[in-house]
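From the shared-data thread, chain only:
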Amino acid sequence: MLQALLLTGLMPFEYQVVPVSLSAVAGMCWAGAISAAGARTGTLPAAVTRLGRAIVIGLPVAVGAFGVGFLVTVVFDVSWAWAAGGIPGAVVWTMFPAWTLLVGLRR
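Structure, as C-alpha cells:
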C-alpha cells in the first residue's frame, strides 16, 4: 500500500520512512516468531530456524548500533558515524530475504 501511495504521489517519500521501517521490523519479528514455532514443532529445517533466530537477535543490536552512530554524528559531528552504525542493520536487512528464500526452498 505504501508503494502505491508513493508512486501516485499521495504520500511523499519523507513521510514513508517511519511506516516502512516499522513494517520491516514487524516482518523480521514475524520471521523470528515463525522460526521459533517451526523449531518447536519440527516443521522448519534447522537452517531456517537458526537464521530466523539470528534475525531476531540481530535486530535490537542493529537498532542500538544505528542509534549510537546517529548520536555520535549529532553530538561529535562525525559525518560517517551514522553510516557505520547502520552496517549491522544492513546485515539484518539482507538476512530477511535470505530467510524467506530458505523457507521457500525447504523440503
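The chain is about 85% helix and 0% strand.
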